[in-house]
Specification:
Elements (H helix, E strand, L loop, with lengths): L8 E6 L2 E6 H13 L2 H7 L4 H15 L4 E4 L8 E4 L1 H19 L3 E12 L4 E6 L2 E6 L9 E7 L4 E3 L9 E13 L2 E8 L2 E8 H7 L6 E6 L4 E5 L2
Antiparallel strand pairs: 1-2, 3-4, 5-6, 5-8, 6-7, 8-14, 9-13, 10-11, 10-13, 11-12
Helix pairs in contact: 1-2, 1-4, 2-3
């Protein structure tokens, strides 16, 4: 039975029509695609056949397309069902969004102030404590705005020495925590009082000889940072 998170929604757009598809409807499409039956899909999700039909009707009405094709009969009665080409496109888009969310489920959340905008270079600087971080230009922001910067753990690189590269954000810090999680090492690095988490492979950790208290350099691209305005 699916563990459904009802707070997750996917905005699906087909032509001029759009629809907010929550995880219940996403799983409904996924189970219909796998099981070939609306009734069987509804049973997996612990809601009624009528509820499943209402979800499908609302989806099709909002997007102005046919999402499910049904046929009478089939094993066990109740008819068979399969996703139309448009239904498969919707399911594929949801799977892509899910994959991206899984990859970026754990992120560093850093509150900062926007302190500089460089229009010719297309970048801005945000500041937290004594640390300045370069982020991409966003014309909706202005100097003094409070921002939340989001950086995925796997987008932060750890190095034993500073490297010359296209990465705009390079900082010296100290490892204050090392945790084994599945087949990954999660390193917590203190950079001037700002804490960054980085996930690296076991082999990379061994190559770098990482230990607690070790001074290292971390780096991440400006484009690896997503921001939200707080005020």
């Amino acid at each position: 039975m699916a563990n459904v998170n009802t707070s997750v929604e996917y905005r699906i757009t087909i032509g001029e029509y759009s629809f907010l598809l929550d995880e219940k409807k996403y799983f409904l499409l996924d189970y219909i695609n796998n099981l070939g039956s609306i009734r069987a899909a509804a049973n997996e999700l612990s809601f009624s056949y009528r509820t499943a039909l209402n979800y499908i009707k609302k989806m099709e009405s909002s997007l102005n397309v046919t999402v499910i094709e049904t046929q009478k009969g089939g094993s066990g009665g109740g008819g068979s069902a399969e996703l139309t080409e448009e239904g498969l496109k919707i399911l594929r888009e949801c799977k892509k969004i899910n994959a991206i969310m899984e990859l970026h489920r754990e992120v560093n959340e850093l509150e900062a102030e926007l302190v500089d905008i460089d229009y010719p270079k297309g970048v801005m600087k945000i500041r937290m404590k004594a640390l300045d971080i370069t982020i991409p230009l966003n014309n909706k922001y202005k100097i003094g705005d409070r921002l939340l910067a989001l950086i995925s753990y796997d987008n932060i690189f750890i190095m034993n020495s500073p490297q010359k590269s296209s990465i705009r954000n390079n900082f010296k810090g100290k490892i204050v925590e090392l945790i084994l999680i599945d087949d990954m090492i999660r390193a917590k690095v203190d950079v001037d009082g700002v804490m960054f988490y980085s996930d690296i492979t076991l082999s990379a950790s061994k190559d770098l000889d990482l230990i607690l208290g070790q001074e290292v350099y971390i780096g991440f691209k400006a484009l690896a940072i997503a921001t939200l305005k707080l005020n």
